[in-house]
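SEQUENCE-TO-STRUCTURE ENTRY
===========================
What this section holds: a protein sequence and its matching fold, both as plain text.
Tokens: labelled as protein backbone structure tokens, with as many entries as the chain has residues.
Question of interest: how does this chain fold, as expressed in backbone structure tokens?
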Amino acid sequence: MAAGPRERMMAQLAGNVGMRRSEVARCRREDLIHDGVGWSLIVHGKGDKQRMVPITDKLATEIMEFCPRGGYLFPGNEDGHLSAHYVGKLIGELMPPGWSMHKLRHRFATRGFAATGDLLAVRDALGHTSVATTQIYTAVSSDKVRLMQAAASDTSTLMV
């Protein structure tokens, strides 16, 4: 099965915004706002918590073009939108073996942390309460571990 516009949008929201499949399923065109600095998306998270996540101008334009009239981006039969399960199933069928919608969220967290080194910013983008939970989502590249090892084992700076 080839990805169509709907599936590409779902994958972008997971991989480029860090949204859970349930958050993607409930995303509405009206959740896209310009906050004076740039575009943001109101994400309806777990426990009815909302968070504001900045997005690129390009993604904002794609959302407006994808859903020009408003309403749910992915209409369906579960309170007017697709179910989270179905969103996950659609994307899972398109992903390589071992990948899932949730893995895209982990990828987002890892890339965000690698780019900024700011675990609190990643925590807020993901909508976590605890930094400990966010740490589970972020993988450290082997290059960073090698860099740390080289810096830590530099004997020229040892004070013995």
The helical segments are 5-17, 21-25, 57-66, 84-94, 101-116, 119-126, 131-137, 142-152. The longest strand covers residues 39-44. The radius of gyration is 18 Å.
